[in-house]
Design a protein that fits this description.
The protein is of the alpha/beta class. Helix 3 runs parallel beside helix 5. The chain is globular, with a radius of gyration of 18 Å.
Length: about 270
């Protein structure tokens, strides 16, 4: 099974394009989990248990787990092992180096941590890679608009990914920020068959409408519309997991409303 097949299967099963970022910051964790033996793991597990039927994937950002030292890495490994097998896990780690070093990074991600995809490098057909193409930060144009081969760099990255995906079908995707809706639409023209991981919704003010309109592939595979802070920090009280579930469901239903052309406030019955 390719990564893309696993992703589309999860999207269909949960009727969801929502990807939840698992980015725990100790200073923001509820007191209810800070009192546990392993706060990072307790927090992550509670969020997953509360939202696993509402998402199409999870995206732990390696930096936040590394900040916990060796205990943080153990917590991440245990968390990934407990995520339902049908849901893809995308490790958000910015790895880039020569071949043998990249291979070592791949082993750490796929064999040790057990994730399904990494942003941003390619390994094997059962795993996936999301290449940083048009990031969501305000300074993205400073580098990504520079010309390479007569085209902006971010467009060239997309073209390379299309070539790599032709060699390794179902493995490549692009990271495209919802804060750049015009570029999002243009990249979909360049790469009609590659799945998009779309950050920038929520605190960064990205366009959910553009993400929903231009995110799907030509074959109908949906994007991974990522939300981290708005979901996992929906409450700092003991009800944090329930609040995360409510936030995740609200966002998922907003996305589905845009997909299906229903009224924005309509509630979906499960």
């Amino acid at each position: 099974m390719t990564f893309l097949t696993k992703l589309t299967t999860a999207q269909q099963a949960n009727r969801s394009w929502l990807c939840v970022g698992l980015d725990p910051v100790l200073d923001r964790l509820p007191e209810a989990v800070l009192a546990t033996e392993d706060p990072l793991l307790a927090f992550g597990r509670a969020i997953v248990e509360a939202t696993a039927d509402l998402v199409c994937a999870y995206k732990p950002n390696l930096a936040f787990w590394l900040a916990g030292g060796s205990a943080g890495l153990r917590a991440l490994q245990d968390l990934v092992a407990g995520i339902p097998n049908h849901l893809p896990v995308i490790l958000d780690g910015k790895f880039n180096d020569v071949g043998h070093t990249a291979t070592a990074y791949a082993r750490a991600a796929f064999d040790v941590l057990g994730v399904d995809a990494v942003r941003p490098f390619l390994a094997s057909e059962e795993h996936g890679v999301f290449l940083l193409t048009r990031t969501s930060n305000p300074s993205a144009p400073d580098l990504q608009d520079q010309l390479a081969g007569g085209h902006p760099l971010y467009q060239q990255v997309a073209r390379l990914a299309v070539e790599w995906n032709a060699t390794h079908p179902g493995t490549c995707g692009l990271v495209v920020g919802a804060t750049y809706p015009e570029e999002l639409a243009h990249l979909r023209e360049i790469a009609p068959d590659l799945p998009f991981l779309i950050p920038g919704i929520g605190a960064q003010g990205g366009s959910l409408a553009a993400a929903s309109a231009h995110g799907p592939t030509a074959s109908g595979a949906g994007p991974l519309i990522n939300s981290s802070r708005d979901v996992i920090y929906a409450s700092s009280k003991p009800d944090f997991a329930e609040a995360a579930r409510t936030a995740a469901r609200t966002l998922r239903d907003q996305i589905n409303g845009l997909r299906e052309g229903v009224n924005e406030g309509e509630v979906y019955e499960e």
